[in-house]
Design a protein that fits this description.
The protein is built from nine helices and three strands, in the order H-E-H-H-E-E-H-H-H-H-H-H. By secondary structure, the chain is mainly α. Strands 1-3-2 form a three-stranded antiparallel beta sheet. Helix 5 runs antiparallel to helix 6.
Length: 218
């Protein structure tokens, strides 16, 4: 296996461990320990962590090494504002250009997410990574006809940072969030970008307020 493949795999694993809290905010990233945990060399780890630092998921501390990026209420609010700005713009473009294939993607993505939300209601907390992957897929489906790969990739990166806060707070809004997801799907099928923007604002703002109310993010 070539080093590029090994490095990419390590990048995906470490990034996922940061997003899902297995590597905690402000945790020191000791290279000697990480090289055993992730099965890569120290030089590859430095490249991976530098890449994650460029995404602001890791902080480079010069000679002192690396640590997982800290979290704060102010940062969450900034990330939420950026996500809202990007997603509202992308939704307007996507609703205007979307065809029947796009509608099918939106409906299919919502079906999976709604099924997971129903399972959460009846069985309790599901696998967080599967649940949030379906959430990500649904919101990406909504904007997938926007016509800009750059916009979608930027939105995806911001969405991941927002997701990190949701996972760290270990909370969601249950039926409220599920209802908002259904409303967004209906707006897509009706091409009602104005209403979708209002629903999305309530969805994101409500998520921030709920996460902060738990008290795990200061």
């Amino acid at each position: 296996m070539d080093e590029g493949t090994i490095g990419e795999r390590a990048y995906r694993r470490i990034r996922g461990d940061i997003l899902f809290g297995r590597l905690a905010p402000s945790e020191k990233l000791k290279l000697e320990r990480l090289k055993d945990d992730y099965g890569v060399s120290v030089s590859t780890l430095r490249e991976v962590l530098s890449r994650l630092a460029s995404e602001k998921l890791v902080v480079a501390e010069g000679q002192r090494g690396f640590e997982v990026a800290p979290v704060s209420a102010a940062d969450l609010k900034d990330i939420a504002s950026l996500r809202l700005l990007l997603e509202v713009h992308a939704i307007a473009q996507s609703f205007q250009s979307g065809d029947m294939e796009w509608e099918a993607r939106v409906v299919a993505a919502h079906h999976k997410l709604a099924a997971m939300e129903d399972r959460k209601k009846s069985e309790g907390s599901p696998d967080a990574e599967t649940w949030k992957r379906y959430d990500w897929e649904f919101h990406q489906a909504l904007i997938s006809a926007c016509g800009s790969r750059e916009l979608m990739e930027t939105h995806g990166a911001v969405f991941d940072k927002y997701l990190r806060y949701q996972v760290l707070a270990l909370t969601d809004r249950g039926d409220i969030a599920a209802r908002e997801h259904k409303q967004l799907m209906q707006c897509a099928l009706k091409r009602d970008a104005a209403k979708a923007g209002a629903v999305l604002r309530a969805h994101i703002t409500g998520g921030v307020d709920h996460a902060l109310a738990v008290g795990k993010i200061a």
